[in-house]
Amino acid sequence: MNTRTRTTVATAAVLVAAATLSSCGGTKSGAEASAASSCVETDGDSIKLGFLNSTSGAMSISEQTVRDSLNLAAAEINASGGILDKEIEVVEEDGASDPAIFAEKIGKLLTSDCVAAVFGGWTSASRKAMLPVVEANNGLLFYPVQYEGLEASENIYYTGATTNQQIIPAMDFLKAKGVKTLFLAGSDYVFPRTANKIIKQYAAELGIEIVGEEYVPLDKDDWSTQVAKIVKAKPDFVFNTINGSSNVGFIKAYYEQGLSPETSPIISVSIAEEEAPSMGKDVTGQFAAWNYFQSVESPTNETFIEAFQEKYPDRPTSDPMEAAYTSLYLYKNMVEKAESFDVDELNDAADGVTFDAPEGEVTINGENHHIAKTALIGRINADNQFDIVWSSEEPIEPDPFLEGYSWWNPDAE
C-alpha cells in the first residue's frame, strides 16, 4: 500500500507513544514499530474493541452520540453472532476533549487493554495526537468525523468526509446560489485553519470574495467581538467551521447582534441534528453540509433510526454518529473478508469492502483508507431537522490530498 501520512504531531503525543510502547511489544519506533508483537487475544470467544470518545469537556455535546451509536452497532453485531463468531467486548475510555488525553488513552487501549481496534475521536487535534501512538503500535483507529483532509495513514480508516466530499461541495452550492462574499468563522485549531486555507483558494477560483476570517479557541464561548466584524462586513454567507459548545456562543452573538438567515445565513460543517436544538436560539433557515441527515429517505435509514431511537428514546440521528455506526460494520466486513484480526492482513483485504449504510452504500478505498460518500446540503427546519436542498446524487470518491484539483496549492499561505 502506497499511503502517505502528512501530519503535525503534538509533543505530548510523541512522548505518550514512546512511553506506551514499552508495555506491549518492546520499545520500538519508526519502521521497527510495524514488527511489534501484538497483544491482541484472538483465541477466545470474544474480541476486545476500544471506544474512545469525549464524555466530558467542550466536545461532549457532540461526541456522546458517537459513543452511543457505536454501542448500538456492537449490540446489533453481537446479537447476530459477533465478528468471526466472537462477541465484541467493549472497553470504553473518555478522551475528555483533550488531545493529550486521547493520546494517553489510545496507548492504554492498544497496549494494556490489548484491543484489536479503536473507534473514536472527533477534533483533528485529537486525531493527530492519536496518530503517532496508533502507528507506533501498528494498531487500527476508525475515525468517524469529517475533517480537513491532507492525511492518509495505514493505521487509520476515515469514515467521515474528507474535504472534496463536504467543503468543496458546500462551496459549489454557495456559488450556485450566487454568493459573492463570504465570511469565515472557525475554532482556533488545525481543522478550521486548514479547511479555511482550502476554502480561500477555491473561493478565488470561483470568484467569491472572502471579506473576513476570525477564530476563537475551542474551549471559549465569547464570539461578540468577532461577530461584530461579521455585522460590519455584511457577507452574503458565513462559513462556520466552529466545533463543540463554542457554537452556542457564536450563535448567541450572531442573533443578538441582529444577524439572521435572511441577512447573512450560515453554512456549518459541525452543527447537526444533535447540536441544533442545543444552540439556545431558533436556528431555522440555517444550512449545513454533511453526507447524512436523519431525513435521508431509504429503508436502511428507517431501520437505523428505529433501532437507535428504541435504544435511546427521543434522540435524533446525525452524520458523525452514523459514520461511527458504519465504521464498526465496515470493520466487521473487513475482518470477515480477511478471516483475520491482524492489522496487516486487514489492510490487504480492505479495498472494495462495502456496507449498506443508512447514508447509502459506502466503499473503502484501500489506497487512502477513506470511503466514497454522497455530499448533501440541508436547511434546518422548525423541528431541528434538515430539509435536503442539494445532493451530489452519487458517491464522491475520496481525494484527501486534492490531487484532482488544479487550483489547490498546499504550499501557499
UniProtKB/TrEMBL annotation:
**Could you tell me the keywords of this UniProt record?**
Signal
Gene3D superfamilies reported for this sequence: 3.40.50.2300
Pfam families according to UniProt: Peripla_BP_5
Q: Which InterPro entries would you find in this protein's record?
A: ABC_urea-bd_UrtA, Peripla_BP_I
Q: Write down the PROSITE patterns for this protein, in alphabetical order.
A: PROKAR_LIPOPROTEIN
Q: Which residues form the signal peptide?
A: 1-25
Does the UniProt entry include the keyword Signal? Answer: yes
**Which PANTHER family does the record associate with it?**
ALIPHATIC AMIDASE EXPRESSION-REGULATING PROTEIN, PTHR47628
NCBIfam families the UniProt entry points to:
urea_ABC_UrtA
Q: What is this protein called?
A: Urea ABC transporter substrate-binding protein
